[in-house]
């Protein structure tokens, strides 16, 4: 039966469409934002207010954006939009990391290695620059499409002249403090990429290596074995045979006991604990040399400074040392030292005063040619991997090889080309962690002056700073900012001083770092073009460039300090957790190094994006979620909602199923906004139609109290960067509380009461508050959708603004303390509601009643609950539960009975009322409806 009174009711009506069609509507909206300079409008609105600076970590400018980028930029945008609504001036300058090996590698691939090697540095740099700039445009379009607001027309690029100059300014500040030194030291070296690698550029994975045991014959006899007839040997163990040509020492474990085993008339020295096992492996009988009737077992110290014959080069001797790093679980407890190819070896030798380090391997990983120690000798010109079997064969022929086998162990690999790396002592530039207390001060900043989100991130970066070796900042590549050092062409002296550094800074400000490779030093150094050692004027610019982490690391200077709209230190940095050893750290070390404090007040660390099963995304697995494609198919707001819904403080998952669920959640939010608009659009204006809080109906007061609590929770979550907490609070409120309970209960009043009546205005006032609150709380997440909804909203609900980004934060008509006073009534009402709902369900399944309006509720409630439900904040429970009547009596335990409603069903509102009768020619309506019709 159609309701003949339909015309007389206030049925919901709005132009805000139910179907979103985001993929079509968002690009138009984005264009509108760009055309009307919405980002600039927000800055203008909050100009002169307190600033909030989120300093963008620059993504690397190669390839299109991936879902990890999307999560990163959307998270930043959510933070920025929140602080914009707080009234802060929020300048956001996106940036790109432009220099570095990956781009140079792409250019090398494009040209082919042969042609690349023949191309001039200036030309290579030009091609790299072009590649970077093209990729930046590609990424920029992707980021803008996600709805990220910022100064996209004036981003920062690490290849800008100003950035080049800042690199050297920070370098100079640290150089002047004595933190930067030139050292000869083994560094991780990739022979494929021809460069030194930083710790952050090393990945560990399993590698199978030859494991060999070799006799090193002593040239004098150790104490106690003077009377032994045959030769005495150290039995050493190594997994890198190619380092034997550069062997300079062997190390024994201090304090450990060593035994000499007799074999073939020789005394073979090994760690006592490992000797029986070794002998078994070698196929030897375990027969210790007997001295005075006892096995020869002596402490390692007995061998200290005993010399032995270098196993490859005749006439060269090595020396036995003591070093703590020697392992006592594997091998023989004696390791050979090649200080040119190992960090531990290097320091063990340095401690003994061995500074003349042998390093016979060139940049390509090939042995230098020659016959002397310090060249490859018999292995001249061979690649290190190629040399391994030849060296083993050489030792076998000489009779010094005891055993050869294979082992699998964790070995460092190059992050870029994935090949195993070498250690190689080369001339490099370093930042000293300890000479001037950089390590200590950086650690102190991490612990005391920076807030970390999540808090345990402080331990992670703290431990890294505590343990890291000196920072090797030089690279042997083309695409980067040069280390500003010169070599005197007359005497070979390295030249770098304040005068040359100032000239380079000036040069880079004017012409950028390209000039280093094209301009003659005398053309810009002026008076500074002089060798302080020999007085000559022929300075040659050196070729090393700075580690790319230095470039991005000094963005606090090149960007935050140089751009007037920004501030240094920044309020917050936000990046993936891998940046604890990357950008967070290089920024920290350069800022503390130059200025003594951290470049950020807070750091937000995020996890990685994985697929639904927790696997890395890869083309071969077919599990890649491309954010550009999701925008085209579902809309950017779906990605934004996903970002808000997941706990980004650890690794997060995304796949098509998760996106489908997110899409469902989106529809719930959208439907709620639509319902609210359908009662407000064109029907209510808060400034003229709103009802003061004190005059609201009790149920409406209760809802205002509830939304005030939710708002406080959301506010707190946003300010702590806990997006999923904000999301959860909003989702539960909108879906569980509003849609299922409150909005449902309100429909009778909204549809049936007379327009303009207090009953209806009171309800609309609360809907307007709800809508206003959701506009603000959802704006950081559903930026496009909120913007869309605003077009249908009462002007007073949206600060008379057109764009969502221009909203100010929501302010509830009551305080949180006032709201909390309603807590008891709300809880009691909801508790009774559950009991009523259960009773109604039972009645429905028993077939007694079909609609809740047909029943009246008789409830017995305990004294405390009774007091709340009948007190001064009590609500109309019949309306709240959508039943005909609720009769409360006080009793011991909560119980609910339902029975048929009294009266008859009103033809207009379908409620059962005792007042139903004939009014003004209407045959069968209730008194309330009669008044509404009047
Ligand atoms: Zn490599
Ligand atoms: Zn000189
Ligand atoms: Zn009625």
Written account of the structure:
This protein has 934 residues and is of the alpha/beta class. The protein contains 31 helices and 36 strands. A 6-stranded mixed beta sheet has the order 13-9-10-7-6-17, with helices on both faces. A hairpin with a 6-residue loop joins strand 33 and strand 34. Helix 7 packs across helix 17 and helix 24 packs antiparallel against helix 25. The chain is elongated, with a radius of gyration of 38 Å. The model has no long low-confidence stretch (mean pLDDT 94).
Query: By helix and strand content, what is the structural category?
Result: alpha/beta
The N- and C-terminal alpha carbons lie at a distance of: 24 Å
Order of strands in the sheet with most strands: 13-9-10-7-6-17
Number of discrete helical segments: 31
Bound molecule types: zinc ion
- Unreliably modeled segments: none
Rg, Cα atoms, Å: 38 Å
Fraction of helical residues: 40-55%
The best one-word shape is: elongated
Would you report the number of β strands? 36
The major sheet is characterized as:
6 strands, mixed
Strand content: 15-25%
Average pLDDT, rounded to a whole number, is 94
């Amino acid at each position: 039966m159609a309701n003949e009174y339909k015309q007389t009711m206030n049925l919901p009506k709005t132009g805000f469409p139910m179907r979103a069609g985001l993929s079509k509507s968002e690009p138009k909206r984005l264009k509108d934002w760009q055309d009307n300079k919405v980002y600039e409008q927000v800055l203008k609105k909050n100009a002169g207010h307190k600033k909030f600076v989120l300093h963008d970590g620059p993504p690397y400018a190669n390839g299109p954006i991936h879902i990890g980028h999307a999560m990163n930029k959307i998270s930043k945008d959510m933070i920025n939009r929140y602080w914009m609504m707080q009234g802060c001036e929020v300048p956001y300058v996106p940036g790109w990391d432009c220099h570095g090996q990956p781009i140079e590698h792409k250019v090398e691939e494009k040209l082919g290695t042969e042609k690349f090697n023949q191309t001039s540095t200036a030309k290579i740099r030009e091609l790299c620059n072009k590649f970077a700039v093209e990729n930046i445009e590609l990424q920029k379009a992707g980021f803008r499409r996600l709805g990220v607001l910022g100064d996209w027309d004036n981003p920062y690029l690490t290849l800008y002249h100003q950035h080049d100059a800042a690199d050297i300014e920070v370098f100079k500040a640290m150089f002047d403090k004595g933190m930067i030194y030139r050292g000869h030291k083994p560094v991780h070296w990739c022979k494929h990429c021809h460069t030194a690698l930083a710790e952050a550029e090393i990945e560990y994975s399993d590698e199978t290596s030859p494991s060999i045991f070799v006799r090193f014959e002593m040239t004098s006899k150790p104490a106690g074995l003077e009377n032994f007839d045959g030769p005495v040997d150290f039995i050493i163990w190594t997994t890198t045979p190619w380092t034997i040509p550069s062997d300079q020492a062997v190390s024994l474990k201090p304090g450990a006991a060593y035994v000499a085993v007799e074999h073939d008339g020789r005394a073979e020295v090994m760690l006592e604990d490992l000797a029986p096992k070794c002998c078994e492996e070698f196929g030897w009988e375990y027969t210790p040399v007997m001295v005075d009737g006892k096995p020869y077992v002596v402490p390692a110290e007995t061998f200290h400074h005993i010399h032995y014959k270098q196993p490859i080069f005749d006439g060269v001797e090595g020396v036995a040392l003591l070093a703590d790093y020697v392992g006592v679980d594997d091998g023989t407890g004696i390791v050979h030292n090649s200080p040119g190819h190992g960090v531990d070896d290097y320091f063990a030798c340095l401690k003994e005063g061995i500074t003349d380090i042998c390093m016979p391997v060139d940049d390509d990983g090939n042995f230098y040619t020659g016959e002397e120690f310090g060249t490859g000798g018999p292995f001249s010109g061979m690649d290190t991997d190629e040399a391994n079997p030849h060296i083993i064969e050489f030792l076998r022929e000489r009779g010094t090889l005891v055993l050869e086998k294979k082992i699998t162990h964790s070995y460092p690999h190059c992050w870029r080309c994935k090949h195993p790396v070498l250690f190689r002592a080369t001339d490099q530039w370093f930042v000293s962690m300890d000479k001037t207390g950089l390590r200590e001060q950086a650690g102190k900043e991490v612990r005391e002056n920076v807030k970390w989100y999540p808090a345990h991130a402080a331990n992670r970066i703290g431990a890294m700073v505590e343990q890291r070796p000196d920072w090797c900042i030089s690279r042997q590549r083309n695409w980067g900012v040069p280390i500003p050092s010169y070599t005197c062409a007359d005497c070979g002296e390295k030249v770098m001083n304040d005068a040359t550094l100032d000239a380079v800074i000036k040069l880079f400000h004017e012409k950028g770092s390209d000039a280093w490779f094209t301009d003659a030093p005398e053309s810009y150094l002026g008076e500074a073009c002089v060798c302080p050692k020999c007085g000559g004027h022929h300075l040659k610019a050196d070729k090393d460039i700075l580690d790319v982490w230095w470039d991005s690391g000094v963005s606090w200077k090149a960007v935050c300090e140089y751009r007037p709209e920004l501030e240094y230190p920044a309020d917050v940095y936000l990046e993936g957790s891998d940046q604890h050893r990357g950008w967070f750290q290089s920024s920290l070390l350069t800022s503390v190094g130059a200025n003594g404090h951290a470049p950020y007040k807070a750091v937000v660390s995020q996890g990685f994006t994985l697929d639904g099963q927790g696997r890395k995304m890869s083309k071969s697995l077919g599990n890649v979620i491309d954010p550009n494609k999701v925008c085209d198919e579902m809309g950017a707001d779906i990605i934004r909602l996903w970002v808000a819904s997941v706990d980004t403080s650890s690794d997060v998952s995304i796949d098509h199923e998760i996106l489908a669920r997110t899409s469902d959640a989106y529809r719930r939010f959208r439907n709620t906004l639509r319902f609210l608009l359908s009662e407000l659009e064109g029907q209510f204006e808060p400034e003229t139609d709103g009802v003061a809080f004190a005059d609201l109906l009790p149920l409406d007061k209760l809802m205002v109290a509830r939304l005030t609590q939710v708002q406080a929770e959301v506010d707190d979550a946003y300010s702590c960067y806990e997006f999923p907490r904000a999301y959860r609070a909003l989702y539960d409120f909108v879906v569980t509380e509003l849609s299922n309970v409150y909005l449902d209960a309100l429909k009778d009043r909204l549809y049936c009461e007379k327009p303009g009546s207090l009953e209806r205005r009171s309800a609309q006032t609360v809907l307007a508050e709800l809508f206003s609150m959701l506009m603000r709380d959802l704006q950081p997440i559903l930026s496009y959708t909120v913007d869309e909804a605003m077009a249908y909203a009462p002007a007073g609900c949206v600060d008379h603004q057109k764009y969502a980004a221009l909203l100010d934060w929501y302010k509830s008509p009551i305080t949180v303390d006032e709201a909390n006073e309603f807590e008891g009534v709300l809880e009691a009402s909801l508790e009774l509601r559950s009991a009523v709902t259960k009773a109604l369900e039972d009645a429905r399944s028993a077939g007694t009643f079909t609609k809740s309006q047909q029943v009246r509720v008789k409830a017995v409630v305990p004294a405390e609950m009774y007091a709340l439900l009948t007190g001064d904040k009590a609500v109309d429970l019949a309306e709240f539960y959508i039943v005909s009547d609720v009769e409360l009596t006080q009793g011991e335990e909560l119980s609910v009975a339902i029975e048929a409603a009294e009266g008859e069903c009103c033809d207009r509102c379908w409620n059962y009322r005792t007042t139903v009768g004939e009014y003004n020619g209407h045959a069968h309506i209730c008194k309330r409806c009669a008044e509404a019709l009047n």
